[in-house]
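Supplementary material to the annual report.
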Amino acid sequence: MASHRIEESALSDFGHIPYAVPHMIHPPTTTFTNQEGSAFDFGELEEAIVLQAVNETKQPLYTGRPAATLEMFPSWPMRFHHTIRGSSKSGEESTDSGSAVHTLSSRGEGSRLEPESPVGRKTDSSSDHRVIDQMHHFQLPQQIDMASGSDSPRTGMSQAQPVAKTTSEKRRGAGSNSERMLDAKTLRRLAQNREAAKKSRIRKKAYVQQLESSRIRLSQLEQDLQRARSQGFFVGGGGGAGGNISSGAAIFDMEYARWLDDDHRHMSEIRTALHAHLLDGDLRVILDGYIAHYDEIFRLKGEAAKSDVFHLITGMWTTPAERCFLWMGGFRPSELIKMLTAQLDPLTEQQLMGIYSLQRSTEQAEEALSQGLEQLQQSLTDTLASGSVNDSMHQMAVALGKLTNLEGFVRQADNLRQQTLHQLHRVLTVRQAARCFLVIGEYYGRLRALSSLWASRPRETLIGDDISCQTTTDLQMVQSSQNHFSNF
Amino acid sequence: MHYQAESYGNYYASTVRQSAAVDPLERVVRLASGSAVVIFSLSTCCMCHAVKRLFCGMGVNPTVYELDLDPRGKEIERALMRLLGGGSSVPVVFIGGKLVGAMDRVMASHINGTLVPLLKEAGALWL
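Predicted assembly:
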């Protein structure tokens, strides 16, 4: 990553600087991810900064490579109130700390740092404040990125503002009685930071190890799947790597992932076709291809329902947010129509009628299927609840027979979804239909993204947090980011 | 919705020899032409329950034949399976004496808007 490369080069420039910082920087490992919070020895760095403030001399570092200094401390916490405003702007622009710097310098010049802007303003001991300000600008974009909690409350965004005032005062205090004595409070704080940094390192290590083992497990699973496919779906107890997913389900998940990639491709094609204002005839061809693409997923789901209906009906193939809206193993067609009517604005009278009657008929069909499923559930409950001990085998056989009807319901629900999409295609003009399918695709893309974001949202963690708790969160995030599932 | 499980008895007295020799498919056709909307069903089948609810939800009053309650229901089931080309025998829907099909065809025709006109034409649905 850019930030790491810059850090490495910064290291090499530090030979002539008379403080203890360089040897404390850990060179970044290949498995490091931004998401694990500060990789740097926070404690030592702060110590160095304090020492620097104590020295109060203009360092050649600033005139030469202020940028390098800044890049060295990318995880410096947000401290100053006024920097938050500015960095929220830069935060929007990118998540790379390298380019955050260039927004910071408020020029558009690539990712090279401008020596002039920070340096020009530095004339006195308040220069170190500037340095810290600019480090904060780094901190914000990274914080947005970061999946895990911070290693200390001081790096937590939520605590940036209240902390900012007090630490800025402390800093000025340290600067003014620079003459030196690092007071007890500061010393304690530095010690705490060192502790936090150590904990952060440990957590990072555990997380990385878990990632590596998951990677190995994943490749094993994929190999098993390949083998299973070539052998004609021989079920070997759920896969060699101890996965608790049936082979039919795993195969469907893989096919669905491929379908999602195809979907993305189709959508880009439609988007460019719309922007290029293609002739209706050409657009129709593209759209027909997209409808066939949807038909494909319904066909795949039909196959999957034969081998593992529970995987479909419980929504395990989808992302959590989509699972929330799950109806009979997929999306609810009437909800889709409702969502679309707001987006599809200029419609003729006839089209509006068509859409409303489609909504009504999907609602009626959904209601009928739901009631049928309810009756199945009731019947199953009765079977399992009744029956004597002697009769249990027979009872189970009856229950199993009833369960086979589940496949029929999932099939009918998918049939309903498929018919709804076809009817939409019929009611709308070619251009409207193209826009409509784009809206559908984007909507579900966002829902899937929501699931990923939710899983990776920053949580409040205390210093004494459990390592396993932290890494579980991170692992969930990894899994869900690979899990762009669930659409139909 | 009215069930016609025992109504074959009405024909029995007058057409004993005829009904004994009647081909099940012919029976199906005859029964189907007897009402505007005819559903062949099994009392234990949940999908049949769903299709019944669909019609009732639309305000239609279908005639339902529960084949498991009919002494010759098995023959009719087999005939229906042959008619539909395999799969399950029920539910099967006839409207205005014409075959609509199993659940998937019924749903598809409802979604694409052809079911309601068919029902109106058969006199099963008024606006």
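Confidence is low (pLDDT under 50) at residues 6-18 of chain B.
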